[in-house]
Amino acid sequence: MSRIRLQAAALRKWEGTLFIAPWIFGFFAFVAFPLGFSLYMSFHRVKVTVGGIETVPNGVDYYREILFSDGGLLYDSLIPFLREAAVMIPVIILFSLMVAILLNQRFWGRTLFRIIFFLPVIFSSGQIMMEFIQQGEGQLAFVESLHISYFIMEYVPASWAEPINHVISSFVIVLWYSGVQILIFLAGRQTIASSVYEAARIDGADPWHTFWKITLPGLAPFIFLNTIFTVVDLFTFPSNPIISKVTTANYGLSSALAWIYFIIVLVFIGAVLLVFGRLDKALGGKR
């Protein structure tokens, strides 16, 4: 009997291995190898010739050039972009959370509205978004009439005024990128049992206290998930100034810049993990 169980367990392992084998092959062929080769190129001078790719060892010269010798290649674009990301991420999270809560209510045409909020994610490719941004589309009509950008420039420090104005100037486009976050929050909201809300209403809790005591704590894991997703999505946004600097003119220099940017993204995600980890410990006794 035990032998049959061992054979069945081994068979399940082989079945799992066969199912995951295409992914493993695809990862090593199309992800791991390009990543490794780009890291190799970042330490070499790369020249593409008719006979193939020629590489000459260059050490860490490209990294030294980007970080110290020619800091403008990275810092002049990176610092404003990080400030812009610090403004844009909370905006996307708050907007998608509010819309998801509204779309979870029962009203006529709810399915249609859910589709409408998700359609831009399907149809708005990177090139389409770049065209919208270059044409100055996406700004709210009342922003210009009320001269909000002028007040921001007047009362907000200059280092933060420009990123905030840039977010406002493409506010509608930013919200278009909230479709996935809305879908995740909507799925998370439906994991909270309706019986909990019924018990809260019986106890006399109003919608405001219900949101803070039930909805928000219940959606905390999904807020964390959406924050990570938004960070990754934002750092690959079509108007990203760092990605636009990665060209094929110098493969070695571009590879070094890409790896430095990759490390910066990991640090940003690590900061998010640290903040949410501390918040989870702080709220652990209250949930």
From TrEMBL:
Gene Ontology annotations for the cellular component aspect, listed alphabetically: plasma membrane
GO biological process terms held by the UniProt record: transmembrane transport
Species assigned in the record: Paenibacillus piri
Taxonomic path: Bacteria, Bacillati, Bacillota, Bacilli, Bacillales
Domain ABC transmembrane type-1: residue ranges: 78-280
Principal location listed in the UniProt entry: membrane
Annotated TM spans: 20-41, 85-103, 115-133, 167-187, 219-237, 257-277
Protein topology in the membrane: Multi-pass membrane protein
Keywords: Cell membrane, Membrane, Transmembrane, Transmembrane helix, Transport
Record protein name field: Sugar ABC transporter permease
Gene3D superfamilies noted in UniProt: MetI-like (1.10.3720.10)
InterPro entries assigned to the protein according to its UniProt record, in alphabetical order: MetI-like, MetI-like_sf, UgpAE/MalFG_permease
Similarity annotation: Belongs to the binding-protein-dependent transport system permease family.
Compartments it resides in: Cell membrane
